[in-house]
Amino acid sequence: MAQKNTNTLTLPSIDAASQQRLVAPLPAHAHSALPPYAASTEAAIRASLHSSAHFSDQKTFHFGQFSLNPYPTRQVAPALDFASRDKLTERLSAILLSEKFIYIGFGPAKAMKIAGVTVEPLRFVAGKRLTARCTLRLQNKNTAALQSVNIIAKLFSDERKADQIYCHLTALARIFPPQQAGESSSQYRFAVHIPKPIALFRQIHAVLMDEMAGSSLKAQLSDLEVSSSMYAAGAVLANFHMAKMRVERQISECGEMARLHGRSVLIQAAIAESCPDVSAFLRTFDRVKPVKCAFPVLLHGSYKLSHIFQNEQNLALLDLDSMAMGHPAYDIANFLASLYSLGARSRVTEAMRQQIFHNFLSGYSEHALQQISAREVLWYLAVLLVTKKACKLIARTGGSSAERAHTFFALAQQTLDRCVTLQDGVALEALPACLPVISELGSPYT
């Protein structure tokens, strides 16, 4: 008999009644044959969480090799200060030290206590969120032996956001289970891997999850075997788009059009000299037939090289905070827009950008179920080059970035021009030949 993989949801040494009481029931539709959009996964997961012991004063979380028993303080918690990274880090460390954790290993149960905590901030966005690596030093009560375990904590200024992310990760962990013993590695090569949720601490709006081994594809660009790694990145995204799951957030063509017009007005106000470019772009955009989405899929929402981790042969998807329902062309366009940004900063050459996208597109096309046209990706690319890339430059550097913003507008304008001339139904495989070349526009990072 094949040995059960120790990374799966496991409750060692407790009876069935306790298991039912401690763990949220698996939603029936998570592995069902229902159409992907027949039910709201997010609503079902949230309902199951709130009906279980997950949010009670005394609760146990079992996932992978962790069993966490946090006992929140009865006192009213002070408000979180998301203006200060250091204060948030201190608060997270104090909370972890004050809670009672029990670590249960597989085989003979081992009771562990926290002997110390080290919190390393990884990324801080003032007013919004903190991502930190937490090193827990666990001590065996019997032998006094110490071992260290790393987990990732994400704190959100919005309590509902933390609740939502935990729900999403819980659902995805059940939809995309880890490889089981006896399964072929080749069959599992393009499977979706995500950080496994460990616990939700509503007291500090924090989601605790496994730390994924490896490093991002962006960090490995100089050492990567581009053809195989980028092909895998496309295939994994195609499999992610097939998830039988719904979330509340929507990305629609109407919403993106409104967002584009709103962001353009802000840019006009910030840099007056860009007004002619913005106005011309909007006039062209309003003449272009918008993209319609008949069958929304689950979108990553921010698919790019820095959000894809590679560990040996497996790819894992990180930063799933932006998941939404929408047109699959959105994720492809976001990936492409991020490549243009890397090219603008001379992180990749034009030839390398083309090679990366060619292999990515091959992997996606060969594994996707839904057909996408080249024009649909171009439409979203033009939008994202303005709403994400140009606006980010303005936000970071203010009015002094007029010339840099002009470059992305010029790139978006050329993308739209190709969108106007391209017929509906042109296959996705034709997209690389339709793309503008950033080297002809000049770098926005002068």
Question: Could you explain the architecture of this structure?
Answer:
Mean pLDDT is 76; it is low at 1-42, 48-76 and 103-109. This protein has 2 domains: 16-210, no CATH class; 215-440, Aminoglycoside 3'-phosphotransferase, Chain: A, domain 2 (Alpha-Beta Complex). The strands form 4 sheets. The chain has a 5-stranded antiparallel beta sheet with strand order 3-4-5-7-6. It has a 3-stranded antiparallel beta sheet with strand order 8-11-12, with helices on one face. With 446 residues, it is α+β, with helices and mostly antiparallel strands. It contains 12 helices and 13 strands.
Compact overview of the structure:
By secondary structure, this protein is α+β, with helices and mostly antiparallel strands. It contains twelve helices and 13 strands.
